Amino acid sequence: MKTYQIRILPTAQKELASLPGAIQKRIGKKIDSFQENPRPPGARMLKEQRNGFYRLRVGDYRILYEIKSETLLVVVIKVGHRRDVYRGF
User: Which CATH architecture has domain 5-81?
Assistant: First the structure.
């Protein structure tokens, strides 16, 4: 089985750190699970100009990330509440 590396951009780290502790843990577990399966059930590819980018729901929060299959890398780009996370993306 392939194991993916996970890279969290500094902006996404700040966004994650600003969330409540319980939410941080839930999102952290999901991000860690990307090592084994970067396309878990519920992950959706973003449409139109955002090919290669995915989003995963965690309650009212979203993880936006990119999968680079050729290098086995998952890059977490944004983490936030569903009403805010797509702004400026």
Answer: 2-Layer Sandwich (3.30)
Q: Evaluate if pTM is beyond 0.85.
A: yes
End-to-end Cα separation, the chain, in angstroms: 32
How does pLDDT run across 48-89, given as a tens digit for each residue? 666 779 999 999 999 999 999 899 999 999 999 999 998 887
62 phi, psi to nearest 5 deg: -130, 145
**Quick check: 2 pLDDT over 90?**
no
Query: Cα separation of 86 and 71, whole Å?
Result: 26
H-state helical runs in the chain: 10-17, 21-33
Task: Give buried/exposed letters for 56-75 (b at 16+ CB in 10 A, else e).
Answer: bebeebbbbbbbeeeeeebb
Q: Tokens 């902006």 correspond to what residue?
A: 11
Residue listed under structure tokens 């977490």: 76
CA distance 20 to 3: 29
